[in-house]
């Protein structure tokens, strides 16, 4: 695959992952049902983080002449559906919502690591992905810590 086509494919996939993350945290806020405004604030921060990453990835597409993907991944859609079912039966339990969010953060970590390890991307793109992946790791750890302490 030509380098610019590979770059566009990888970046579009990571844009979808960030779209998943945005929609997942929007769902989590809805699922809280207004019970925990502090946790909703954390989720809003995660949404803003993914919006920023999506903009950076879109900018990195540069001259690839590829349309930026606004969709989410099929796995993300399935995951959010499962999250809604769990919340329906759990009575909007913040711990279960945090556990679901942690799973989504793990999926984002995996997607970024796969993109970085695949190779064939320009150094500046790899650097961007590594920076975002590290920040996402911190977000994962924050969600995990909140889950572990009982939010």
Describe this structure in words.
82% of the residues lie in helices and 0% in strands. It is elongated, with a radius of gyration of 16 Å. It has five helices and no strands. The longest helix is centred in the first third of the chain and has 30 residues, at 3-32. The relative contact order is 0.18. It has helices at 3-32, 37-61, 74-90, 94-118, 123-149. With 151 residues, the chain is mostly helical.
List the helices and strands and how they pair.
Layout: H1 3-32, H2 37-61, H3 74-90, H4 94-118, H5 123-149
Alpha-carbon distance between the termini?
A: 46 Å
The strand count comes to: 0
The Rg value, from CA coordinates, equals 16 Å
Structural class: mainly alpha
Mean pLDDT, to the nearest integer, reads 83
What fraction, in percent, of the residue positions are helical?
Answer: over 70%
Number of helices: 5
Task: Please outline the major beta sheet.
Answer: none
């Amino acid at each position: 695959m030509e380098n610019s086509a590979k770059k566009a494919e990888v970046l579009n996939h990571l844009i979808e992952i960030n779209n998943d993350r945005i929609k997942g945290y929007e769902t989590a806020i809805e699922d809280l049902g207004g019970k925990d405004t502090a946790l909703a604030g954390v989720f809003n921060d995660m949404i803003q983080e993914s919006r920023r990453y999506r903009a950076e990835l879109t900018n990195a597409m540069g001259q690839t002449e590829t349309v930026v993907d606004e969709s989410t991944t099929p796995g993300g859609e399935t995951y959010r559906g499962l999250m809604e079912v769990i919340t329906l039966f759990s009575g909007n339990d913040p711990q279960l919502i945090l556990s679901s969010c942690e799973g989504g953060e793990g999926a984002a970590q995996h997607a970024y690591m796969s993109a970085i390890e695949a190779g064939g991307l320009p150094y500046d793109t790899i650097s961007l992905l590594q920076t975002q992946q590290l920040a996402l790791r911190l977000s994962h750890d924050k969600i995990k810590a909140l889950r572990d302490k009982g939010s």
